[in-house]
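Researcher: Let's continue the batch. This sequence belongs to Membrane protein YqaA with SNARE-associated domain, and it's 191 residues. Same format as the previous ones, please.
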Amino acid sequence: MKIFGAMYDKTMAWSKHRFATYWLSFLSFIEAIFFPIPPDIMLIPMAMSKPKSAVKFALITAIASVLGGMIGYSIGYYAFDLVQEYIVKFGYQAHWDKAISWFEQWGVLVVFVAGFSPIPYKVFTIAAGVMQMAFLPFVATAFISRAARFLLLARLAAWGGEKFAAKLRRSIEVIGWSVVLLAIIAYLILR
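Model: Same format as before. Here are the structure tokens for Membrane protein YqaA with SNARE-associated domain:
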């Protein structure tokens, strides 16, 4: 069953669309608040298809992500009672507990680590607000972390360029099904 090739082709087409930068910004913004899909899925193909703009795309992604993170922080600070049930409903409770314990242990450094962590970034933005972390250090640390992550991804994707995109397309079914299999195994082990 070949489904990943069609998704890959669609994503590559979106990455070349004239509104791709706006979609990238929007995706980065909402991912830091509630959306489950990270902006990497747009950033990487955009950087591969337009390598000279990779740094610009990374900075746009970082800025939008930090702006979204500021909204997530505000939700945690002012309205956590309204969203607390969704943490459990969408399966983020274990991530939430880990983030809170990290905040208690390391404070602002957790926001830096969050930029590279497999734990969804939105968990950290809301947790920072709940923990009433100082706002300006939160914003500064979030920007440094997110910019570093997205610059790294964009530069690697740009380095590979169109040649890498073509090679990736030839192997996308194997990669896609391998990721699904690993996710199932991880779920069975960690539950």
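Researcher: Any comment?
Model: The chain has a mean pLDDT of 87.
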